[in-house]
Amino acid sequence: MAEAVSDASIIERARHEPELFSVIFDRYFAAIHRYAAARIGPSAADDVAAETFLVAFDQRDRYDPAWPAARAWLYGIATNLIGRHRRGEIRFYRALSRSAVRDEVGGHDDRVADQVSAEGVSPELARGLARLSKGDRDALLLVVCAQFSYAEVAQALAIPVGTVGSRINRARRKLRKTLAPAAREATNNG
Q: To which H or E segment does residue 63 belong?
């Protein structure tokens, strides 16, 4: 079986053979699109995902080959592009928060946060996400939606790992406060 070629080596070669960048696109487009859809909705996700790869292609000369996988780099680009759609993201979460309450409310507050997706956001969770600062929301959603480690979040957002931990702890604390009344109501009605 052939050994998998690292993203770094593909990007390095794509500097002189641009068509090779399609391998990076094929490897990551679906995941980047899912992440963008969870953040800003499916219609805007098409644009953000496509623009992510356009920016990455344009910046391939600046890719750090010390990182064998391009995953965090691409999610960082996508997160920055989503930041440009910040008002749209907040509107998206506020609209979800006004939607009818779903039949089921998750159990433990952290499990609710771990199940964030555009299709599965409860109104309470959407309201909580809309209230988070951009930095806290970015860090939390990279962990939840992209299943990043703190080190990958740090790489994607170009911040120290300790800052990632602080942002995620702060975001979870704020979400617990927002979700606690809904969890109590579900327990009392269940």
A: none
Contacts 24+ apart (CB under 8 A), 9-17: 9/65, 11/60, 11/63, 11/65, 11/70, 12/63, 12/65, 14/57, 14/60, 15/60, 15/61
Per-residue pLDDT of the chain (190 residues; tens, 9 = 90+): 445 899 999 999 999 999 999 999 999 999 999 999 988 888 889 999 999 999 999 999 999 999 999 999 999 999 999 988 767 677 777 777 776 444 444 433 334 334 444 445 678 888 888 899 999 999 999 999 999 999 999 999 999 999 999 999 999 999 999 887 655 555 566 5
Reduced to 3 states (helix: H, G, I; strand: E, B; else coil), residue 68 is coil
Would you tell me the crossing angle of helices 161-189 and 134-145 to the nearest 10 degrees? Answer: 80
Give the amino acid at 135.
G
